[in-house]
Amino acid sequence: MDTENNSPAWFKQAVFYQIYPQSFNDSNHDGIGDIPGIIQKLDYLQWLGINAVWINPCFVSPFRDAGYDVDDYCRIAPRYGTNQDLFRLCREAHRRGIKVCLDLVAGHTSIDHPWFKASCRQKGNKYSNRYIWTSSTISEANSTLSLIRGYSERDGNYVANCFNFQPALNYGFAKPDQSWQQPVDAPGPLETRKELIKIMNYWLGHGVDGFRVDMAFSLVKMDPRHKETIKLWQDIGQKIRARYPDVVLVSEWGNPEESIAAGFDIDFVLHIGLGGYTDLMLNEKSFFRRHGNGKIQGFVKSYLEQVVTVKGKGLISVPSANHDVKRPCADGRTARDLKVIFTFLLTWPGVPFIFYGDEIGMRYIPGLLSKEGGYDRTGSRTPMQWDNGPNAGFSTAHKKRLYLPLDPRRNRPTVERQASDPGSLLNHVRDLIALRRCSPALQADGTLIPLPAENNDHHFAYLRQAAGERFLIVLNPSAEPSSVRINGIKPGNLSPQICHGAQACAEGDDIQIKLAGISYGVFKF
Ligand code: GLC
Ligand code: CA
Predict the structure, then answer these.
(1) Of all atoms in ligand 1, which is nearest to the CA of residue 162?
(2) pLDDT digits (tens, 9 = 90+) for 59-103
(3) Burial 271-305 (b: 16+ CB within 10 A, else e)
(4) Which residue lies with its CA nearest to atom 4 of ligand 1?
(5) Which of 64, 236, 285, 482 is most buried (most C-beta within 10 Å)?
(6) Quick check: CB of 106 below 6 Å from ligand 1?
(7) How far is the CA of 396 from the centre of ligand 1 (A)?
(8) Atom of ligand 1 nearest to the CA of 163
């Protein structure tokens, strides 16, 4: 047992890995990844330096939205294995110093969930108020919520939380102003809250370390600035932490000021919410483009503003990607560009999250048929590429039975090939994680000092420091060379740690760092 993982200080050096279970590793040859398959790859994750995983929903589901439509919160979907397999995964992960977080879909269920089936009945029952229903199907309710009409015998419309087959659980309304809207402390909403806590306790009691909470911001309806939703999570967090003080709570919220106040430990920079991820990675003009000429300063400013609001209370994660966005290896980017991106992600404060496959530069595959409600997200969800064997080592099933087709390119990246190549993206990511894990300055709350930039600079330079240890990081994602002058540091005092195309030269009392196109440097001084 890795004792460092049990101290509250653990967060400081957390590096998460996101596993989309369908596509990670298939142990029983049916073409779909599974939990025993994940267990087989824990040694790989440990080798990489990962100390926590988040697994996308793995519960019983009709999979109309890849498992974000749950039928039974306390049962592992048979296609992934059994509850016993999950418990074993936790034990095996813990032996390797890795924490396990599940995905808690708190805002809605599937339409096949027994609660919803009961809630659909005309005759009142225990579940009538488990979901949000208007009082009449025929006369229109006046609402900005997404109302689904005519689905059931019950006279009323239900509220959909995301897709129309995801009925919103009833946690109440912040300011009910129609008869069908219940306050947060009405019996129905309180029952829903109790059930959610029960589900969390169930998994925590079996060795799970925490949750990434899906659409955590969405629980209380018509809730300006999420005030009631924040209170609700504070209450849930307090009850959970009373029994499990070390629980890890990660929110899909995209507004750290709110989510950290709600009691979450980590929130993301996402493509939704404050939207920083789109500007950083996805836009044509994003900083991490060879020819985008994009500036990172807007992102940095908004990031620093958010950090101030959460300081000492929680952390912000900039993920490499996730199952909802295009992978970074898309739109012409190659492993070379990804090395610059990962140098940024793994020397940035907060908690890095690596989306499976990004560490080898797996590509976003455009044009795939939508799978399980993936739509254009499907291209980021293809099978992990392990080796050069059949189906890239993901599965021994027939090609046609695979969850999704593999990247068809002959030279697609694999773990096997990159692990044995010291110059690979995979080894670069591994080296960065190793450096981060032994350098407090690079960890979650080491101080960040961005260095000033001129308008025509292509690079971004910043310092990280903690307890007498200092690093200088320089990144140039553009194809054009760039250079950065830094006052008061002598080149002799600068020791390159992880560098490519970045060279320090003396210039009087200062140093000048020359950056080739697409280059990076992590220097200690
Ligand atoms: C979250 C998930 C996404 C899902 C949606 C509805 O945004 O990340 O994949 O479709 O919630 O549950
Ligand atoms: Ca399988």
Answers:
(1) 6
(2) 999 999 999 999 999 999 999 999 999 999 999 999 999 999 999
(3) bbbbebbbbbbbeeebbbbbeeebbbeebbebbee
(4) 68
(5) 482
(6) no
(7) 30
(8) 6
Looking at ligand 1, which atom is closest to the CA of residue 108? 12
340's enclosing H/E stretch is: helix 335-345
Distances (CA, A) of 407 to 20, 366, 424: 16, 10, 19
Q: Is the Cβ–Cβ distance between 309 and 497 less than 8 Å?
A: no
Residue 418 has pLDDT above 60, yes or no: yes
Round to whole Å and give the CA distance between 61 and 83. Answer: 15
Tens digits of residue pLDDT in 221-242: 999 999 999 999 999 999 999 9
Give the ligand with the smallest distance to the CA of 66.
1
Q: For residues 398 and 419, what is the distance between their CA atoms, to the nearest angstrom?
A: 26
Nearest CA-CA partner of 124 in 102, 86, 154, 160: 154
- Indicate the helix (H) or strand (E) that contains 92: helix 83-95
**Ligand lying nearest the CA atom of residue 322:** 1
pTM reported for the whole predicted model: 0.97
Q: Whole-angstrom Cα distance, residue 107 to residue 132? A: 11
**Percent of residues, the chain, with pLDDT higher than 70:** 98
Using the mean position of ligand 1's atoms as its centre, give its distance from the Cα of residue 496 in Å: 41
End-to-end CA distance of the chain: 34
Angle between helix 187-205 and 227-243 (nearest 10): 40
The C-alpha atoms of residue 473 and residue 513 are separated, in whole angstroms, by 11
3-state secondary structure of 168: strand
